[in-house]
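Extended Data, panel c. Modelled sequence:
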Amino acid sequence: MKKLLKLSVVVVAMAMMLSLFACGEAPQEKKAEEAPAPKAEAPADEAKTIKAGFVYVSPVGDAGYSYAHDQGRKAVDALDYATTAFVESVPEGSDSERVIRNMARKDFDVIFTTSFGYMDPTIKVGKEFPNVAFMHCSGFKKSENVSSYFGRIYQARYLTGLVAGAMTKTNKLGYVAAFPIPEVIRGINAYTLGVQAMNPEAEVRVVWTKTWYDPALEKDAAKSLLDAGCDVIAQHQDSPAPQEAAQEAGAYSIGYNTDMSSFAPKAHLTAAIWNWAPMYVKTVEQVRDGTWQGDKSMWWTMQDGVVDIAPMGPMVPEDVKAKVLAAKAALTSGNDTIFAGPIKNQKGEVVIADGTTAPDGDLLGMTWFVEGVIGTTE
């Protein structure tokens, strides 16, 4: 009986030990299942997600300037380490300052302000948010955390001028222009130099609208030039309205910002166009890896892929296309002699001497028209 009792005690003890062993293992297994996997070390070149903001002066549906910028924004948004946001139709002045400041308060890492009139507001807000990178388009003011950027769109303007000069029959070409600032004046001059390279007898008549985006006013300005005998209409405006006016009048047109041929297929010869994606992606990469710098100026070229011309229309003769493409190849290779002397102003005075080329500082501050432009810089 004692032996049986001892055996029972041993069995019970063994059972309790097995039970305790089992109870000890089960929680460990469950704990292992619920515990998060160890976080892998981030690659050395991996950085935080970048928030990029964009401020536009006109609607993204303008088919022109803001639309082109927004295509560049979308290229940034497609990056797996970036998010973007934009505000459209922001007037220059106090409204833009408010919008830029609101973006900075929302912890955007880089803010692109895309219109000339945003320059002073960008500089002002930049001082308030020294840890934010600001990029201002087409201006000249910079600071420790504000850089300026643009593209040499005058290169594309020159090429479109070659086309226009070859296609005019009246030797009168019209140009619907926004504001008399160096950016616009420089483009008109380059266009005129292209026109005259093909047709020395031609002249370019300029009408100012003092707006960036006003389709009705732009169209009326184009009509006034058509009524004056112009048979090719170019523009520094954001809508296709001048080209539509040209088509309605049976004339030709030169577009700007994007390929707007679908709006005036019978008139559209070509266009000076923007491709902001390379510049925007590069800038966001620099902000991400810590190499971005303020107080810099970026002025990218046709060689960099930021500026180009739209395909030339079927009405452009093949020999003209060949000449334009040869000139484009020279620019793409880095051979820019558009503003090489001798070049005269409207008064017939030589302002760029023979054997010299205008330096970038002079181009960025250009306030005079070349010979062959009819109009004032006011």
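DSSP finds eleven helices and 15 strands in the chain. This feature is highlighted in the accompanying rendering.
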